[in-house]
Design the sequence.
């Protein structure tokens, strides 16, 4: 899978998750507002209902007692459901919002609920649950209007019968009052039925919405979790892929490294045969019969051959140290190791008339043996190579401990180097500073590599015509 | 060039013709000690040559039976090590009169170690100089 299509899938999943969250939040916000509004309607309905019942009772009292105070109370209580009625009518006919508000407040609704009452009505009046509630409400309002009319009738009736010239003909008053009482009762019952229906319907609606909300919550939560999980799995897989690819690349690199090493080793190995042949052939030349010019040429050719031989030797050594540089740490007896090196280089040491002294405070080291041998070998042979012709070659090898670290130093009294000129380049690859001695310039590079690979460091101090000292920190 | 031994026959085993030529040239300087030299370009040829002289029935030209073998290690077909492996199996009646000296351009210490089980008298680095040859013949 290409990177861009992979990224697109990830982005897609993230968007799905975010959208699902957004939908969840929106759904919950709106549902909670809806339920809050429904609760407001149910509360409002109870005021409506109470107002209406109180009005009905007052009307009955008025009918029986003729006391105008009951009529006043009747009118007062009826304002409550009438307020709601005003609100409804104005909401349905697009009346002014202040009128609606005033109506609801007249209906004893809590001022904080009024906004919700209006919001629910305006936005949902055409949905089935709301329109059914509105119908019930409208029917109830109709009954309220009838009650209102009845009240007016009774009022007029009472005005008459309590006037001075009233005569009750044929017990009409009794009959009329009985009828009206019945009507009051009927209206009240019908209204009660409507009020209950309204309440029940709103209750069902609230439960229904709650159910839907629950369903959608589960759905979108699952969707969010699902896409997040998918995303996570994809990312994990992607990481595993990358890790696997890295491992493969690493192995390939290691492979390549080995093959390169092998190639270089094989090449340098193969070069030795022709070089040895050259040496042999040059050795066959009868120098005594050569003219002076040719003799000089022959000398220079010998020097070049020695150089070549040394370079190949150093390359081989470098590869060996590279490969074995890390090596297994073992306990080394420094004194016997140095003695071994001296023995192996007996010939060169005798030739240079060199005197090698050891001052070993730290006699035992934990270090890869082959690397240490190679390092010391290199430094000693350098000291021999760059000895001064003016004095006997003296080499001092010291070792000591400072805290956690061991130190080794190899000093000579040879021709020295001008460090201000050579300095850092000393340990560089193929860097040589004296041309009269054969060498490839790889020795010190290999030494530094081996030391640093094992977590140490090497430094040098030198004075021209006085000598050189190398200090190794392990 | 002191004559310390009776005249020898030397078998030179090397795949490199220049190297063989050089060895022969050095040999020439000691022709009072070395009467015959033979060449083989690999272990197999060398073995074939030697086996001619490992049979009591057939002894032809005993002066050509090699007393000294200068053996290179890196050769095609059959290298120095394989040769030595086969050489080991030769009856000691014949084998013991032949000295084996390894003459090689490799200074790989692993090679030296690999030679330990075999009856190799000396390990000499190329090129073969007259001093080195004298040391070989002298012992």
Sequence:
């Amino acid at each position: 899978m290409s990177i861009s299509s992979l990224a697109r899938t990830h982005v897609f999943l993230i968007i799905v998750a975010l959208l699902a969250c957004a939908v969840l939040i929106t759904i919950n916000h709106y549902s909670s507002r809806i339920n809050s509004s429904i609760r407001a309607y149910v509360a409002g309905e109870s005021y409506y209902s109470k107002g209406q019942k109180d009005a009905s009772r007052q009307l009955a009292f008025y009918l029986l007692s003729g006391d105008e105070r009951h009529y006043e109370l009747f009118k007062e209580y009826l304002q409550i459901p009438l307020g709601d009625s005003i609100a409804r009518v104005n909401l349905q006919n697009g009346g002014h919002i202040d009128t609606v508000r005033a109506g609801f407040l007249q209906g004893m609704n809590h001022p904080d609920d009024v906004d919700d009452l209006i919001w629910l009505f305006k936005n949902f009046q055409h949905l089935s649950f709301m329109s059914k509630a509105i119908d019930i409400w409208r029917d109830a309002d109709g009954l309220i209007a009838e009650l209102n009319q009845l009240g007016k009738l009774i009022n007029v009736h009472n005005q008459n019968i309590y006037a001075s010239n009233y005569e009750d003909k044929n017990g009409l008053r009794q009959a009329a009052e009985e009828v009206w009482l019945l009507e009051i009762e009927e209206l009240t019952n019908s209204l009660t039925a409507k009020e209950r229906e309204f309440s029940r319907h709103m209750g069902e609606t609230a439960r229904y919405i709650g159910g839907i909300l629950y369903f959608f919550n589960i759905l979108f939560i699952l969707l969010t979790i699902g896409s997040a999980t998918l995303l996570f799995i994809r990312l994990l897989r992607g990481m595993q892929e990358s890790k696997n690819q890295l491992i493969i690349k690493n192995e390939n690199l290691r492979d390549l490294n080995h093959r390169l090493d092998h190639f270089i080793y094989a090449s340098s190995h193969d070069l030795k045969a022709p070089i040895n042949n050259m040496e042999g052939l040059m050795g066959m030349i009868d120098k005594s019969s050569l003219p002076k010019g040719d003799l000089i040429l022959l000398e220079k050719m010998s020097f070049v051959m020695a150089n070549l031989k040394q370079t190949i030797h150093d390359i081989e050594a470098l590869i060996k140290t590279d490969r074995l540089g890390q090596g297994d740490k073992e306990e080394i007896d420094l004194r016997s190791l140095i003695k071994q090196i001296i023995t192996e280089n007996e010939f060169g040491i005798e030739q240079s008339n060199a005197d090698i002294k050891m001052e070993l405070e730290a006699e035992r080291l934990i270090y890869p043996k082959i690397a240490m041998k190679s390092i010391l070998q290199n430094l000693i042979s350098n000291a021999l190579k760059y000895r001064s012709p003016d004095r006997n070659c003296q080499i001092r090898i010291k070792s000591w401990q400072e805290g956690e670290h061991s130190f080794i130093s190899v000093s000579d009294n040879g021709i020295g180097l001008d460090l201000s000129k050579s300095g850092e380049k000393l340990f560089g690859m193929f860097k040589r500073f004296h041309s009269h001695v054969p060498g490839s310039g790889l020795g010190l590079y290999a030494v530094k590599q081996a030391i640093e690979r094992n977590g140490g460091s090497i430094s040098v101090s030198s004075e021209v015509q006085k000598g050189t000292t190398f200090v190794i920190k392990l | 060039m002191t004559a310390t031994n009776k005249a020898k026959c030397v078998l030179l085993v090397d795949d490199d013709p220049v190297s063989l030529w050089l060895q022969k040239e050095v040999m020439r300087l000691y022709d009072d000690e070395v009467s015959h030299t033979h060449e083989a370009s690999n272990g197999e040829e060398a073995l074939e040559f030697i086996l001619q002289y490992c049979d009591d029935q057939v002894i032809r030209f005993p002066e050509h039976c090699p007393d000294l073998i200068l053996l290179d290690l890196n050769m095609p077909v059959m290298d120095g090590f394989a040769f030595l492996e086969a050489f080991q199996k030769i009856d000691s009646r014949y084998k013991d009169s032949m000295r084996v000296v390894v003459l090689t351009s490799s200074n790989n210490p692993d090679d030296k170690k690999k030679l330990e089980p075999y009856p190799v008298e000396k390990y000499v680095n190329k090129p073969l100089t007259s001093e080195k040859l004298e040391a070989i013949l002298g012992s």
Q: What stands out?
A: The first helix of chain A runs from residue 3 to 65. DSSP finds twelve helices and seven strands in chain A. The interface with chain B takes residues 269, 272-277, 279-281, 283-284, 313 of chain A (CB under 8 Å).
